[in-house]
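Supplementary Methods. Inverse-folding protocol.

Structures were first reduced to a discrete structure-token string of length 355. This string, shown here, constituted the complete conditioning input.
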């Protein structure tokens, strides 16, 4: 597949946004989308999955019809809003986002007035729209970060009952999530894109920092900020209280840090993410609400202050830096009696230095 073969309005938008040629995942999903097949697609972080399903949706939407023709589901409000913006830029179609209570009234009105061709939202909000969603013209339902949602019974029930073509995208699929999906729907294809020449392995350098005492971790974090060169940094922890504690700690007062987790007031979540994306703050302390799919291209450093509980989440967190050919560094804090990072590195075929 070459962009020149796509409909002119779509190709023109892709070129104007800096997409020179299709990535592997974009090429591999082109034919299944054209044939309206149901499929799952796995590709590394930063490999162009959003553009892949944007192209696929455009090819399956009658641009002259104002009817709802596609639905895209994402697991978090932040990812929904990011995807919503990218879909509008790439396709130029009427795309609406419903990922919070504040979105609901506007989205419902737009659906009633036939002003939504593609609907983006969390599963909860899409289900809450109920009868407002007319599925009669819908050709595709897309699930982004599908492996995470596949562990939830309500998502499995939804895709098993939708009776539409499905495209399930993620950077990783666990054996359990694949089993859950296959028990719910019949897939026409399974696509696994390999890392390309500009692989994450080559772009992202991984390091492990052994911490003998948990109380020393904040001091180590301060030293990382002082010693390492970075444009922007994302620091991952495993709890909301940990985010708040780090942000309010005396060691962090001299840095421009922001916190992000699902327990914050929506106004604060929106403002903090907007400030970080704009570059007003260099450092974001967050839970895994930022761990999947979020794209801030100036992030060059990721710190696993707390190790994730699963290797798949380690992959997703690491993918927040080194995106689209840029350099990145991942530093993971680890108890000196623990060798989890080394085990994951061996399975992922990556090298990890010790600092």
């Amino acid at each position: 597949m070459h962009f020149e073969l796509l409909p002119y309005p779509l190709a023109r938008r892709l070129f104007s946004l800096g997409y020179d040629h299709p990535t592997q995942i974009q090429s591999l999903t082109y034919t299944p989308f054209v044939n309206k097949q149901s499929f799952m697609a796995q590709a590394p972080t930063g490999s162009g999955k959003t553009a892949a399903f944007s192209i696929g949706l455009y090819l399956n939407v009658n641009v002259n019809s104002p009817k709802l023709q596609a639905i895209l589901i994402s697991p978090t409000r932040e990812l929904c809003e990011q995807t919503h913006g990218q879909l509008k830029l790439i396709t130029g179609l009427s795309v609406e986002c419903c990922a919070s209570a504040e979105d609901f009234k506007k989205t419902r009105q737009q659906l009633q007035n036939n002003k939504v061709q593609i609907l983006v939202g969390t599963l909860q909000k899409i289900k809450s729209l109920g009868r407002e969603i007319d599925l009669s013209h819908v050709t595709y339902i897309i699930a982004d970060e599908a492996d995470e949602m596949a562990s939830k019974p309500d998502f499995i029930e939804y895709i098993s009952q939708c009776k539409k073509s499905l495209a399930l995208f993620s950077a990783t699929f666990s054996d359990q999530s694949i089993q859950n999906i296959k028990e719910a729907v019949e897939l026409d294809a399974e696509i696994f894109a390999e890392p390309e020449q500009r692989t994450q392995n080559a772009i992202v350098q991984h390091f492990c920092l052994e911490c003998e005492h948990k109380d020393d971790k904040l001091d180590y974090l301060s030293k990382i900020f002082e010693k390492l060169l970075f444009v922007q940094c994302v620091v991952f922890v495993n709890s909301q209280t940990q985010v708040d504690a780090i942000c309010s700690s005396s060691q962090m007062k001299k840095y421009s840090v922001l916190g992000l987790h699902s327990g914050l007031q929506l106004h604060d979540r929106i403002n903090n993410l907007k400030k970080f994306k704009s570059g007003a703050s260099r450092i974001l302390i967050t839970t895994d609400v930022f761990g999947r799919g979020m794209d801030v291209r100036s992030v060059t450093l990721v710190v696993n202050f707390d190790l994730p509980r699963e290797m798949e989440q380690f992959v997703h967190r690491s993918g927040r830096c080194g995106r689209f050919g840029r350099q990145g560094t991942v530093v993971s804090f680890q108890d000196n009696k623990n060798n989890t990072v080394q085990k994951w590195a061996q399975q992922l075929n990556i090298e990890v230095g010790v600092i």
